[in-house]
């Protein structure tokens, strides 16, 4: 499976809560980092639990996946309790094609500066 296929499978298995199959995509020494919260999770078992125990009735949809070689990135929309969030995740595969590193970014939306309102269209 190429990097884009691995990332697509990662998100599909997360959305379906198929934690054993989710874990099959991860290297034993996988490392996860969340930049905004500065959390780090090390190891397959810990990272599967980190996701399986995430609270609430959440759902995600994949907007885009781009990859080349052993590096890839995904853009997802994540919904939890009526709130929608954007997630950007960077993935690295090891030589066996397993995910060895994941780095997440969850940017918060904000209001743009008023002095450029005449230059933009809001959506």
UniProtKB/TrEMBL annotation:
Question: What lineage does UniProt assign to this protein's organism?
Answer: Bacteria, Bacillati, Actinomycetota, Actinomycetes, Micromonosporales
Q: Where is the SnoaL-like domain?
A: 8-101
- Superkingdom in the source lineage: Bacteria
Name the record gives this protein? Polyketide cyclase
What are the boundaries of the signal sequence? none
A Pfam match is SnoaL_2
What InterPro entries does this protein map onto?
NTF2-like_dom_sf, SnoaL-like
